[in-house]
Structures are given as structure tokens and as C-alpha cells.
Amino acid sequence: MATDRATGTKVLRPEEFDPWWDTLLRAFGGGSASPEERELDRSLTEFDRSLAVWDGGAIVGTGGAFSFRMTVPGGALVPTAGVTMVSVAATHRRRGVLTSMMRRQLDDVRALGEPLAALTASEPAIYGRFGYGAAAFQLQAEIDTGRVTLALPAGAGEVRLRYADPADVLAECEAVYAELVPRRPGMLARQPGWERAGLLDPESERAGASALQCVVAERDGEVTGYARFRTKLGWGPSGHDGTVTLENLAALDPATEAALWRFLFDIDLMTTLTMRGRPLDDSWQHLVSDIRRCLPRTRDSCHLRLVDVGAALAARTYQTPVDVVLDVEDAFCPWNTGRWRLTGDPKGASCERTSDAADLALSVRELGAAYLGGVSLPALAGAGRVRELRRGALAEAAVAFGSPVAPWLPHGF
Fold it and tell me: Which residues contact 352 (CB under 8 A, 6 or more apart)?
């Protein structure tokens, strides 16, 4: 990947990491980061996929990608570019810096044969013009555990829980996570080194809370789940008023998951459980006695782009048989523009170019939003973003594109 002389965009060299990373930090508010975080990010950075935009001797734009594999409906793991570390210096706004990086990056992703690109957006309004659609959402909550109780399913009382040092049980926890990856669209198979991100725990970033804690759940001597969390003791006029902040929770079966939630609800001196980044269909919502006192709310998480429409649509399966011609518009990656015949069912799919009449018309942004099965095509049609050209085609495609579980991106990058 050679230098783009017109934009000053170059592939990042390892010796340029510190000024590149400092440029990124400045763009995200100028805050500081711990030495542990800097070293972890350096170790995870794929330098041949990282870009720096230079103006003279200064870096004024940053961008990069990680080589992930994402679960899609049907359970296949599809090569996916995890777009990351995108920033433009405030001194160089509205000069085409971001557009030039996105252009270069998507060309490179296509050359690498990755059908998908994904990102989490600090400013969601930015990325639609580059073809990214909000495909997965996350659940946040602040639960009054002093008033909210749980109704537990059968078997929860048989689960054994024990405290463990997070680093000591890392391998067991990663095995649980890996078993869950093919079960839910949007989950990422972690590359070597990414397991360390879940243990990052600099004291400067705890905001007065405890060091990271961990409990593991066991059934029949096997680890079947875990929860990582922090506690912060507080006192009010009526006594203790502590907060539990959940960082990660994963479980292989309903009994294990319920046992972990009960533990988090019952920690001594704690009256609030806060969480973010959970799947929209998280099970605790159906165990609690009073959902209103949990203050659930949602926000976008994974923004997805189909870099190769044919390969991406053929990589997933469909809930019901579907045979539909899609008229796709993609101004930023014109190789996707045109009509595509998608034929699929729960066993597999094919997607090829066609000259047949179109049944549905939409942009690649809407395809990205609907791809993981969490955003319905009729909802997009109601917003005027999908047009039905053959009567009945929208309903047919809507059922086929769905997913039995909510797509979920389990962690940022």
C-alpha cells in the first residue's frame, strides 16, 4: 500500500505510533491515557492496516482497521474489517481528510477480500455517507437492587460461584466466550491478544471504584460462565448506598446466567447495579420484579457496511426461503451498485448480479442496517429508505432477513 501523494496519506510505521496515538487522543478530547492502555493499543495495532494523514511534519488524521471475523445469521464467521482510531485534527476539518481515509481504507478492505466493515461511532451522524448503517444496538440499565427482586429459573441454585483473580481464570473465561460467539450475530471471534483488553485495569480510570473483580460459575466441575465487575461503596443519610458496575457477563445456559445476575443483585452494601453494552434481549429483563426501576435504555453500537454485496449476502443464511432482486445504490463504492438476485434459505444462500426486474430498491446503508437481522426492512421502508417494487417482496424479505436473537457487538475496538 503505497503513499497517496495527493492526500499525504501513508501507512503507519511502528516508530510513528506515539505521535499518531497522541493525535488521536487530542481529537477525542485531549485526555490522557494510562501507560497500560497505550502499550496494549500498540501491541494490538495492525500497522499495515493503519493510516496517517500528514501535513508537512505533523500527523493531522488517523485511521486503522483490525482483522476480525464476525458471526452472521446462520453462525458463519465472516472476515470483517474492524474500523478504528479514526480522527481528524480540528485544524484540518472540511478539507476532505476523512473522505480520503475512508476511500483508501475501503479500497484496501476490498483488496483483502473482506466482505464486511464494522465500527462503533463516537458521532453516528458521520458514517452514513460512507455506507455504514446502524445494525446492532446495546442495552444500558441502572437497577435499584434494593427494591427489584429476581425470579430464578430451575437449576440456578445448583450453580456454584467462586471469586477468582481475573487473570488467573482468563483461559476459562475465554473458552466460555468462544463457545458463545457462533450463537449470536455481531459477535467477534477474538484475535490473539484481544483477551487482554478485558483485563485492562489502571487505577487512574476506576473513578474511585474497586479493582476489577471476577466470579466464575461452575456446573459439574466445568466453568459455564463468569462476571467481571467493580464495586464502589457509598453512604447516604439512610446508610449504605454502594454501586456495582458490570463490565462483562457471559454464560452458557439459563441457570448459570440467572445465578450470576442474582449474585450481582445481592452483593453486600450495594444498592445499585449499572451496566452498559448488553444485548437488547438480555435475560435479566424477564427475571426482574419491576422493569421500570431498572431504567433500561438503548443506543447504537455496531455500524456495519457491506464492502462486497454479493459475498456478504451469500455468507449468511435466511430464516425462510427468499428469492428477491435487490436494486442497490452505493455511491461511495460503486462496484456494489446494480441489481442483485438473492436466493437463500436456512441452509445457505447465493447472491449474483442480474438483469431481472428489481423487487426492492435500497442503498448499501440500509443493507448494512438490516444485515444482522436486528433492524427490520419494513421499519426502513416506513422511513422511506427501502422501496417495494414488487408487491409482497418486502414482507418476504423481512421475515427471511430476521434473526431469532438480537445481534450484539460484545466489546468496542
Answer: 310, 340, 341
Residue with cell 451498485: 337
Instruction: List, in sequence order, the alpha helices (H) in 122-226.
Output: 170-180
Question: Closest Cα to residue 101, out of 27, 23, 6, 30?
Answer: 6
Residue 197, SS3 per DSSP: helix
Is 163 assigned a catalytic role? no
Active-site residue, from 137, 229, 318, 413: 413
Phi, psi torsion values for 36, nearest 5 degrees: -65, -40
The reported pLDDT for the residue numbered 29 is 86
* 413 is a catalytic site residue: yes
φ and ψ at residue 199, rounded to 5 degrees: -105, 0
Task: Please report, for residues 5, 28, 85, 205, 211, the alpha-carbon distance to residue 31 in angstroms, rounded to integers and kept in the order given.
Answer: 32, 7, 15, 11, 21
Q: How far apart are alpha carbons 394 and 31 in whole angstroms?
A: 47
- Run of H or E including 398: helix 393-401
What pLDDT does 7 receive? 53
Is 131:305 a contact under the CB 8 Å cutoff? yes
The pLDDT value given to residue 6 = 39
Calpha distance 178→376 (Å, rounded):
28
Residues lower than pLDDT 70 in the chain? 1-7
Q: Which of 68, 127, 177, 332 is catalytic?
A: 127
Question: CB-based contacts of 324: which residues, under 8 Å, 6+ apart?
Answer: 341, 342, 359, 360, 393, 396, 397, 400
- At 369, list the grid cell: 442496517
The type of residue at 331 is A
Instruction: Write down the pLDDT at residue 237.
Output: 87
Can you give the pLDDT at residue 2?
A: 46
Using CA atoms, how far residue 30 sits from 23, 27, 52, 95, 283, in Å, is 9, 6, 18, 22, 38
Q: What pLDDT score was predicted for residue 271? A: 96
What is the per-residue pLDDT for 1? 43
